[in-house]
Amino acid sequence: MLDNAIARQLRDIVGASWFKDDDQTRVAHSYDGTPMLQALPDGVIYPGSTEEVAAVMRVLHEHRIPVVSRGSGTNLCGGTVPIQGGIVMVMHRMNAIVEVDLQNLTATVQPGILTKAFTEHIESLGLFYPPDPSSMAISTIGGNIAECSGGLRGLKYGTTKDYVLGLEFVLASGEIVRTGGKLVKDVAGYDLTKLLVGSEGTLAIVTEATLKLVPPPKHKKTMLAMFSDVYDAARTVSKIIENRIIPATLELLDNPTIKVVNDYAKLGLPTDAAAMLLIEQDGELETVERDIELISGICREENATEVSIARNHEEALKLLTARRSAFTALARLRPTTILEDATVPRSKIADMVLAINRIAEKHRVQICTFGHAGDGNLHPTATTDARDTDEVHRVEEAFAEIFEAAIAFGGTITGEHGVGLVKSPYLEWKLGEPGVAVMQSIKAAFDPHNLLNPGKIFAKSARRRVVLERG
Amino acid sequence: MAKTTDREALRETLKIKLDYDQLTNCMRCGFCLPACPTFRETGLEAESPRGRIALMKATVDGIMGPDVPFEEQMSHCLGCRACEPACPADVKYGQLIEQARDAIEEHTTQHRGWVKGVRKLVFQGLFPHPKRMELLGKGLKLYQRSGLQTAVRKTNALKLLPKQLADMEKILPEATGKGVVKTLGTHVPAKGQKVGTVGMFRGCLMDAMFAETNRKTVELLSEAGFDVAIPEAQNCCGALHAHSGETAQAKELAKRNIRAFREAGVDAIISNAGGCGAILVEYDHLLHDEPQWREDAAWFASHTKDISTILWNEGRPLPFAEPVGGEAAAVRVTYQDSCHLKNVMKGGASPRSLLGALPGVELVEMKDAGSCCGSAGIYNITQPEMANRLLEKKMKDANGTAAHYIVTSNPGCLLQMKLGIERHASDKRMEAVHIVDFLHERMAARG
After folding, report:
1. Rounded Cα–Cα distance for residues A226 and A300 (Å)
2. How high is the ipTM of this complex?
3. At what angle do helices A230-242 and A285-301 cross, to 10 degrees?
4. pLDDT for A381-411, tens place per residue?
5. Last residue in a domain, options A212, A233, A266
6. pLDDT tens across B373-387, in order?
7. For residue B322, is it left (φ>0), alpha (ψ between -120 and 50) or beta?
8. Range with the lowest mean pLDDT among A333-347, A452-466, B265-279, B285-299?
9. Cα(first)–Cα(last) distance of chain A, in Å?
10. CA nearest A275: which of A207, A312, A228, A334?
């Protein structure tokens, strides 16, 4: 528990009701969206302004108290579990859209605004903010920045990092820094803005962000193709790109996922299909129609067993149902759902899907794979039961092999969820010792006393996945 | 707040009552948070379904004690169940919150003053007894017609009541004191060609306070082609009991209802109150640990339908009158969802379809029509502060539609909307109305 005098100092800064250290609040901030992890913080603080964040950090810095800043706590890498106790800083109160600049096409927001509330506001102004993580109804822009969230539109539109132009953040010491701005070009020293994106709350606490907006696409078309061989599907993905077409969405479901989705949503999909591609193109009407025409030609050439193009919005929604219900269908299979995000060059998608299936079989676990085939970001998803320690162990072994396979194909251990706690033992596999060492020196430069989200990204020792007993 | 003698004993009861599988099924994705009215209002994780499930699990796991704040948190939940359709993992949150409340209630030795009185009156003295409910209706009628109401209001006697109850007094409907059976008998034949036979679930609050709505429900059903039976042996649905931790009594009431409608030989049981209907469709769960009731409870649960659902999906189209005056401005209506009709009975679409099909009526959706109005059973009496915050927000959205009518599907919502109009309507001519009354009024007079 926190010393009474320190708790009083914190209450003086944010107001009595915005610092809580009762059991109920501590339990409610002991977890995030990651299965099987739980650790209690000593207290939870809800700052209302940058100045309050800075003042809070000065107190915590003085007393060397760790702090985990977070939005809604939906991440899947154990990124916001306070494993060393200390304070959880919830940014929900700082949720204003400070400004939408229609001349520069930028928006300046506080970190606690919900992603969906933000994009809806932006769309109401006839503009577009593309990053669309599946959790966007509850995730915050601050959380998206901390994890560099992706989504379905990554292939054509990029991810969060491509839309952050400037930041205001508070250092561990309590000093306030501003980087970037409403600028397309800015090479004044190291690019601290981009460094902060995806830094998982380990370098500083983001208190404001300036985001790039783009004009929205005018038209959109959706189509679906089924394949009896996953290589055909994967080759189709490569062929589409080779033909200089960059679809807005290019999603893949493997056979185990198709079966599960079909059982759940009763869509009448051919359950013997090895793979399914869901493709969307957006832009000018003429381009969209031409691209969809070309893509369906490519699908047929590559032995698609079925190609359907949505004729209207309702039909498009129907086609999207399969992809949209994948997570829900999987989550209902077993009590515990572990969703990973191993990513490979898109030319290696088929090899990766087959490797995952082989590894799952070897370890006698159920892993279904779906994901963003167009950008090589797959979601191998294990369905298991946290109470079955033997099976959970086998799942962990399987994921270790999946990460290994991804790296062997020239890929990475995480495409969009972050390293956090869960993937920290594997970071060295991807970066090598010197790579990790450079990152650790950057961390030390920002946060010499290791107060900001300690224990994340960098594992005490490589390999062996960390699992706390309760959760 | 309720007083509990022994915390460790409460923990043991929570361990027994809470379904640990359901607690484990919550994968903490957080998708329920934006659907939860108390989370949206407070922004506090503990006030969300994910938070409350974590608290339940933590008390069972021994991470925290089932302390007073825990008990308070369990009663902050509206029980609107909006989190359930949002949940990818299909966690039965409604069951968990009822199990937690049931455990807490078992260890509660003393309720706060007037809450105790209200609970006892509602759960034991009144709702299980149709005759007493009828008497309540009659009493209310006498109160309203005898001049006593006027006298009470003039003398400020209402100040003696807690504010929330005093406000509720103002919006009480005009009672008739005569239930639906007294008005129509126990059987009403179908008009024209018969489509099927249904049993009318009259509900205790509905029959005491909204007996006219019950009568019109039967008339709409008859008009749509259904023979309607109103079994006299039926009683209170038990929803308020189940939601407040009085499970044993809820089960007894359920059994009596199942028996009554089984004996009536009907094809379906029709409810006109979302709050009642939602527990009726879950009688199978309520009685899941009583094998001898399994089959009958499953039949009852799967054959219960809301009035709007059966009218829209199975009934013959109702003969609605064309609006008089031809091009006259349309009547503008907005629909406030009954949480339990929408989230539990999955019947949120039919009321809208019916309203949308009415000639001369324009349906305007209000923002967040699906979020709870704060009525939530007896929540607006036991948790007035949160209920009032939700109501104020709801009325802002309702005012935004400039509707002439707020249409609802549940007596609790209806009363809360009346209260909302009384307190916050920008145009006091706005009216709250049950969908049955609204449809009935627009039927063409038949020769």
Report:
1. 10
2. 0.94
3. 140
4. 999 999 999 999 999 999 999 999 999 999 9
5. A212
6. 998 888 888 888 999
7. beta
8. A452-466
9. 21
10. A228
Average pLDDT, chain A: 94
What is the 8-class DSSP label of residue A416? S
Would you say A288 and A282 are in contact if contact means Cβ atoms under 8 Å apart?
A: yes
Question: Taking the mean position of all CA atoms in its chain, how far away is CA A297?
Answer: 33
Q: In angstroms, what CA-CA distances link A290 with A246, A281, A286, A297?
A: 12, 10, 6, 11
For A75, name the nearest residue in chain B, comparing CA atoms only.
Answer: B29
A–B: how many Cβ contacts below 8 A?
A: 90
Burial class of residue B138, CB neighbours in 10 A (0-12, 13-18, 19+): middle
Identify whether the C-beta of residue A443 lies closer than 8 Å to the C-beta of residue A458.
Answer: yes
Class in CATH terms, B331-441: alpha beta
B159 pLDDT band, cuts 50/70/90, is low
d(CA B63, CA B114): 33
Same domain for A84 and A14: yes
Domain that holds residue A79: 4-90
Residue B329 has a pLDDT of 65
Taking CB atoms within 8 Å and a gap of at least 24, the contacts of B166-171 are: B167/B419, B167/B422, B167/B423, B168/B380, B168/B381, B168/B415, B168/B419, B170/B419, B170/B422, B171/B415, B171/B418, B171/B419, B171/B422
Write down the pLDDT at residue A210: 98
Two tokens at B336?
A: 């406030």
Beta bridge partners, A128, equal A214
Per-residue pLDDT, B317: 94
A88 DSSP β-pair partners: A44, A68
As a whole number of angstroms, the distance between CA B223 and CA B54 comes to 50
pLDDT at site B297: 97
pLDDT reported for residue B106: 87
Q: Do both A58 and A120 map to the same domain?
A: no
Chain B nearest-CA distance from A54, in A, is 22
Q: Which of B107, B90, B83 is nearest to B16 (CA)?
A: B107
- What's the angle, vertex CA A219, arms to CA A213 and CA A225, rounded to 5? 110
The reported pLDDT for the residue numbered B367 is: 95
Only one residue has tokens 């005491």, namely B208
Tokens of B161: 């009541």
Do A104 and A192 belong to one domain? Answer: yes
One domain, residues A82 and A108: no
Closest residue on chain B to A35 (Cα): B27
Q: Is residue A311 left, alpha or beta, with left meaning phi > 0 and alpha meaning psi from -120 to 50?
A: alpha
Q: Does B447 touch chain A (CB under 8 A)?
A: no
Q: What is the CATH number of domain B3-110?
A: 1.10.1060.10
* Element housing A435 (H / E): helix A427-446
Question: Phi and psi of A276, rounded to 5°?
Answer: -135, 135
Chain B nearest C-alpha distance from A25 (Å): 6
CA-based nearest residue to B203, from B132, B146, B148, B273: B273
- At position A257, the amino acid (one-letter code) is T
Q: Where in chain B is the domain with CATH 1.10.1060.10?
A: 3-110
**Where would I find the H helices in B2-146?**
7-17, 20-25, 37-42, 49-61, 68-76, 83-86, 93-106, 113-120, 130-145
Number of domains in chain A: 2
Amino acid B378: pLDDT: 80
Most B CBs within 10 Å, among A18, A21, A24, to test the B interface: A24
- The C-alpha of A58 sits at a distance from chain B's nearest C-alpha, in angstroms, of 25
Which stretches of A297-373 are assigned E, i.e. beta strand? Answer: 304-309, 336-339, 366-372
Does A105 share its domain with A208? yes
| Binary contact (B43, A46; C-beta < 8 A) | yes
Instruction: Please indicate, yes or no, whether residues A187 and A133 belong to a single structural domain of this protein.
Output: yes
CATH number at residue A48: 3.30.43.10
A332 domain-assigned: no
User: Residues A37, A78: contact at Cβ < 8 Å?
Assistant: yes
